[in-house]
Design goal:
Number of helices: 8
Structural class: mainly alpha
Shape: elongated
Helix content: 55-70%
Strand content: under 5%
Number of strands: 0
Order of helices and strands: HHHHHHHH
Length: 168
């Protein structure tokens, strides 16, 4: 007979319970009770119980992470649409003052606010930004705008190059 808990988590466990197996069954009940009260077995049992109680947390964390990634992708998708719109119409992106409290925040942020009346994702994102401030990943800062504009321009250049290669 072996002790599974001691095999898996026991440190310095007795050989009889881990490697050789317990074989003296004439005093088996007494030996079993004595083993179950050893500090090695108690620690191993606690490790198993702790692991069992923590296991449901991991799938929940993975699920929440996937939800956050999907939410962020939707935000970026909508912001790219705003950038494409401003680019098509050759409109400026930023204004002189871009705080959320200003009436006119610049074309980009004003369109984000307008879109938030129709998009629950953008609306929630803006609410989080206003409540949490810099603790939240914004995607709306001037630096993030420039990164998105650069990514879009690289994609446009790639498309143009591939079309030119196809024509020649």
């Amino acid at each position: 007979m072996y002790c599974l808990y001691c095999i898996l988590f026991g440190r310095h466990a007795q050989k009889a319970w881990v490697t050789d197996g317990f074989r003296q069954f004439q005093n088996g009940t007494i030996a079993l009770i004595a083993h179950e009260t050893t500090s090695v077995h108690v620690e191993a049992s606690l490790s198993v119980k702790l692991r069992e109680s923590c296991m449901p947390i991991l799938p929940i964390m993975v699920k929440e992470r996937k939800k956050q990634v999907a939410f962020n992708r939707e935000i970026v998708r909508q912001l790219v649409e705003i950038i494409k719109y401003l680019g098509y119409h050759s409109l400026s992106f930023r204004g002189h003052r871009e705080q959320w409290s200003n009436i006119i925040k610049g074309n980009f942020k004003d369109l984000v606010v307008l879109l938030s009346t129709h998009s629950p994702e953008i609306s929630l994102h803006i609410s989080n930004l206003q409540l949490k401030g810099r603790k939240e990943l914004s995607f709306i800062s001037w630096n993030q705008q420039n990164l998105l504009i650069s990514a879009i321009s690289e994609e446009i250049c790639t498309i143009i190059k591939s079309e030119i290669k196809l024509q020649h």
